[in-house]
Design goal:
53% helix, elongated, 126 residues, mainly alpha
Length: 126
């Protein structure tokens, strides 16, 4: 009888520890909310407004010369981003789940959709 009480107490303790231990967490929008693009406006994307805001939030720290984490791949100006947009590398890179950009994980699906819409429109300097 004593062994079964110890076993029961051990199992109960393990269950409590498992319940109280932190679960897996996700800190990017796509993991939290999925790929739902409802409410994601991609009409008339402007480089100077929507695209630049996404770039500044997700890419600038590594892709602007002079930044502390500069990667050596300059994308701080429209001309630099336009080159990557028109040769297909920009859209391919922001959607590469096996080697995501930014390295912390793919940016939000809506942000990627905004960049893709700008590229589809010819990557205008607007």
């Amino acid at each position: 009888m004593r062994i079964s009480l110890i076993s029961a107490a051990s199992l109960l303790l393990l269950a409590v520890i498992a319940f109280l231990s932190p679960a897996c967490t996700y800190d990017n929008e796509e993991d939290l909310y999925g790929n739902d693009l409802t409410g994601c406006d991609t009409v008339g994307m402007r480089f100077s407004v929507e695209v630049k805001a996404v770039f500044d939030a997700n890419c600038a720290r590594c892709h602007v010369p002079g930044s502390p984490q500069y990667s050596g791949i300059a994308m701080g100006t429209h001309a630099q981003m336009e080159n990557f947009a028109k040769n297909g590398k920009l859209v391919g890179r922001i959607n590469n789940a096996s080697s995501p950009m930014p390295p912390s994980g793919l940016m939000a699906a809506c942000d990627r959709a905004r960049i893709e819409a700008w590229v589809r429109a010819g990557a205008p300097n607007n």
